[in-house]
């Protein structure tokens, strides 16, 4: 059966046993409210039964990539199959396409399908929300979003729903895209403005999300001393959003946290800055309050959270949809 979103956007959890569910993009979004998804992600990082092998990245002839990302816990198994083609928007196509297949880990039954791009957008923003909950010195904003695509919209919604942000500034290479995101923010009741100089806007914004296509450096100024930065766009060694000298400044004066150990070989911003990513604590270290986090944490200075992506977040989304553990 296919489950579509009701008019009220009330989450519709699919039946875990009777039949196979297929959630379209709208129903997938409705089933994954950002605060609940952030809770599910935090719960997953406390679960020692979760197994996430390295993801397979297959280059495609046109310059894109096919990602194959399996993971499992004691009850669920998933495989995420998505393609990423950076220049697809110029063709009128989404940059990310694909699905997430959900299985019962005990008997192998296929339980259903989730919309891959929707899960990717929402779980990435929910991870940033969780990191901000844990690490941000100030949560009131204004929030600066650099990059007005799918992730810009998802992070806007996540920070509004999960942190109560009421003011947002949007910067993008495309004025039309920035204006569209500003209108969306205003429709949500936020004070929203387009800014044409992202570097200058950093001085006024204690919350920053960079989610550009990461094909070139987009930010060269230093964030505020009390800033929380979620750097999202660069998820391969060759991609970059933040200038290397800014990353080195943040490492010297503040706290750097990566989403998972996969960032050791994927965090383009930090790798191109010559930083030892392997020495940085992960978000799981923060959640679990490990010695690695206690050694690295500072009570002052800016915080940079580097997000690269991980199939575990997709498993957390499947748990959230199916009403699994969230605490």
List keywords for this structure.
327 residues; alpha/beta; ornithine cyclodeaminase, domain 1; Rossmann fold; 2 domains; seven-stranded mixed beta sheet; seven-stranded parallel beta sheet; 11 helices; 21% strand; disordered N terminus; ODC_Mu_crystall
Secondary structure blueprint with pairings:
Blueprint: E1 2-3, E2 21-23, H1 25-30, H2 34-45, E3 56-59, E4 65-72, E5 76-84, E6 96-104, E7 110-115, H3 116-135, E8 143-146, H4 150-163, E9 167-171, H5 175-187, E10 191-194, H6 198-201, E11 207-210, E12 228-231, H7 244-253, E13 255-258, H8 268-272, H9 283-288, H10 291-296, E14 303-306, H11 311-322
Supply the CATH class of the largest domain: Alpha Beta
Radius of gyration: 19 Å
- Give the second-level CATH assignment, the architecture of the largest domain: 3-Layer(aba) Sandwich
What is the string of helix and strand elements?
EEHHEEEEEHEHEHEHEEHEHHHEH
What does this structure look like?
There is one protein chain. This protein is an alpha/beta fold and 327 residues long. The protein folds into 2 domains: 2-119 and 312-322, ornithine cyclodeaminase, domain 1; 123-310, 3-Layer(aba) Sandwich (Rossmann fold). Helix content is 33%, strand content 21%. It contains 11 helices and 14 strands. It has a 7-stranded mixed beta sheet with strand order 1-2-7-6-5-4-3. It has a 7-stranded parallel beta sheet with strand order 10-9-8-11-12-14-13, sandwiched between helices. It is globular and about 55 Å long. It starts with a strand and ends in a 5-residue tail after the last helix. Residues 1-18 have low confidence and may be disordered. It comes from Tepidimonas taiwanensis. Keywords: Oxidoreductase. Pfam families: OCD_Mu_crystall.
């Amino acid at each position: 059966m296919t489950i579509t979103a009701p008019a009220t956007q009330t989450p519709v959890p699919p039946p875990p046993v009777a039949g196979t569910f297929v959630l379209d993009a709208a129903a997938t979004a409705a089933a994954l409210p950002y605060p609940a998804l952030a809770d599910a992600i935090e719960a997953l990082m406390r679960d020692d039964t979760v197994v996430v092998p390295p993801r397979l990245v297959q280059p495609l002839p046109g310059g894109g990539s096919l990602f194959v990302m399996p993971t499992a816990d004691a009850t669920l198994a998933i495989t995420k199959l998505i393609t990423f083609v950076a220049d697809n928007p110029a063709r009128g196509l989404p940059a990310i396409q694909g699905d997430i297949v959900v299985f019962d880990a005990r008997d192998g039954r296929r339980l259903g399908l989730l919309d891959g791009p929707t899960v990717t957008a929402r779980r990435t923003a929910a991870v940033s929300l969780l990191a901000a909950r844990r690490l941000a010195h100030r949560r009131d904003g204004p929030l600066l979003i650099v990059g007005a695509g799918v992730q810009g919209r998802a992070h806007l919604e996540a920070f509004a729903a999960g942190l109560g942000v009421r003011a947002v500034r949007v910067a993008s290479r495309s004025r039309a895209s920035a204006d569209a995101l500003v209108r969306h923010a205003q429709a949500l009741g936020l004070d929203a403005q387009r800014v044409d100089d992202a570097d200058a806007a950093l001085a006024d914004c204690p919350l920053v999300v960079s989610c550009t296509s990461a094909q070139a450096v987009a930010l060269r100024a230093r964030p505020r001393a009390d800033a929380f930065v979620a750097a999202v766009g660069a998820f391969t060694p060759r991609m970059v959003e933040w200038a290397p000298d800014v990353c080195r400044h943040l490492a010297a004066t503040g706290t750097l946290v990566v989403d998972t150990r996969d960032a050791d070989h994927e965090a383009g911003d930090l790798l191109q800055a010559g930083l030892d990513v392997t020495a940085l604590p992960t978000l799981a270290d923060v959640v679990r309050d490990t010695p690695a986090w206690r050694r690295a944490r500072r009570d002052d200075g800016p915080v940079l959270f580097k997000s690269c992506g991980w199939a575990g977040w997709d498993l957390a989304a499947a748990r959230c949809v199916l009403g699994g553990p969230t605490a």
